[in-house]
Amino acid sequence: MISYIKGILADVEKDSIVIDVSGIGWHVFVPGQVLDRLPRIGEPVKMHTWLQVREDAMTLFGFPSKDDLQVFKLLLGVNGVGPKNALAILSVMTADDLRFAVLGGDAKTIAKTPGVGTKTAQRLILELKDKVSLEDAFEPKPGQENEAETADVSGVKEEAVLALTALGYSPAEALKALSGIEITEGMDSGQLLKEALKKMGMA
What predicted TM-score, i.e. pTM, was given to this entire model? Predict the structure, then answer.
């Protein structure tokens, strides 16, 4: 098993990258979001990987953090979701956004992924709802780019969820109310709560 690959970024393609490790170029498929956060060609890069072995090919899938890789593996455990589908989901949603969607029962957001229909999204929620938690979603992710910014957004979401549950809503209802609300720079939990209540027709 190849746990990770660390080397020099040699090339960037539409849905994959090539990492040069001691003169050997490793072809690694990555989520679309990762392509926007890569270092420049010629600079060091590290990807946590999962290897798919088939009769006709061996394919590497890479992720910038262990958390992303863990969620990718969870997706692979869902009936009908293969590596390409899982990669497509993580191309349009972050690992935490997926957790929020699963816990909030937000099949509509998941189904926006190309190649993933409503039925697959609903099955994904059904099979993963007991395997993800709010704690995982709100936990800071060491090593990720924009770590401070990510922690701030998670903190605002967490406070808003706690406020909604204090008002009597279930965690699923709270997360569903928060889904789709863009957290802009400087937005605090009070403003997010107000937007969520407005969405629920309570303000």
Answer: 0.75
Nearest Cα residue to 63 out of 81, 51, 53, 78: 51
- Would you state the structure tokens that stand for residue 198, as one six-digit string? 């407005």
Distance from C-alpha of 107 to C-alpha of 157, rounded to nearest angstrom: 19
**Bridge partners of residue 24, in order along the sequence:** 21
How far lies 175's CA from each of 91, 123, 150, 163, in Å? 21, 18, 17, 11
* CB-based contact 101:116 (threshold 8 Å): no
Half-sphere exposure of 122 (CA within 13 A, CB side): 3
SS3 102: helix
Q: If residue 48 lies in a helix (H) or strand (E), which one and from where to where?
A: strand 44-53
DSSP reduced 3-state for 188: coil
Residue type, 117: G
Phi, psi of 174, rounded to the nearest 5 degrees: -65, -45
Q: Which pLDDT band, with edges at 50, 70 and 90, does 202 fall under?
A: low
| Rg of the chain over all Cα atoms, to the nearest angstrom | 18
